[in-house]
Prior knowledge:
The protein is α+β, with helices and mostly antiparallel strands. Helices cover about 25% and strands about 15% of the residues. It has helices spanning about 5-10, 25-40, 40-45, 60-65, 70-80, 160-165, 225-235, 245-255; strands at about 15, 55, 85-95, 125-130, 140, 180-185, 190-195, 200, 210-220. The strands form two sheets. It has a six-stranded antiparallel sheet, sandwiched between helices. 2-oxoglutaric acid binds next to β3 and β8.
Amino acid sequence: MRKNRYDQLIRDGFCICPDLLHADLISRLRKTTQRLCDAMTEEHKARFRVQGSMFHTSLDPLFAELIAWPPALDELKAMGFKDPSFTDGYIISKPPGSPGLFWHYDWFAWEDPTAYDPHPQQVFLMYYLDDTCPENGCLRVIPGSHRDHNPLHDILAKPHDEALSSAKDLDRPEFSRRPDEIDVPIYAGDLLIGDARLLHATHPNTSNERRTVITLWFQPDFCDLPERIKAQMVHKTHTIPDDWPPDAREKVARLNPVYHGNAIPYDRTYYKRNPRLTD
Length: 279
Ligand SMILES: O=C(O)CCC(=O)C(=O)O
């Protein structure tokens, strides 16, 4: 078992698996993501000025290859996770001159009694298609903030709120530098695994090139999730397009979560950590 990586994920809220993609796949992903970005509407650009883009991975069957990438699934298994499921994925491509991403977490089931457990209920698998550094907008994180209270928790607005994504006011605390933040520079083709509860942001992209990441949401042990979270995960799962080739459809369908119970999904508009637990 990859105990060190699992321990880091539990302690810090993230870990890196080096060199997981080969050059051919990176090159095909670059071409496909560039094509999507070239066709971006002005409306999309304005709505996602901070992220750069927010395309669904269901836009091209090539992403099925990445979603079901055996070395990544093997990594999850080697870390001790037994039942990984996949719900949704996004292409986030920061153009030159874009502002830094705001501080946020990507978890919505804070009402559940298990919300502060050490074991992650949802993780991001991030694949950067370019080497990242502070100049081109690498990730920043606050280690441990997936479980520990942080002063930022008291002042954050709703994650992915439209006013934040369109960068209406860069003086908001969500765009601030934090004393306990660290940079997470990464090489293209590495895999970054992070707990959905982790506070994260990025630097602005001050380089002359796009900086693209593909973020895939996995539930590393879907079978152990509380019923209402299972229902929420199934509810948010992206539909696989009917016109994808059968093998691409099959790759993703095999990983999509299945839940036949009657629990009511948690409401994604309820996004606040429990103030009871903020000490
Ligand atoms: O662009 C990045 O590096 C991270 C994107 C992200 O975390 C988000 O948009 O939620």
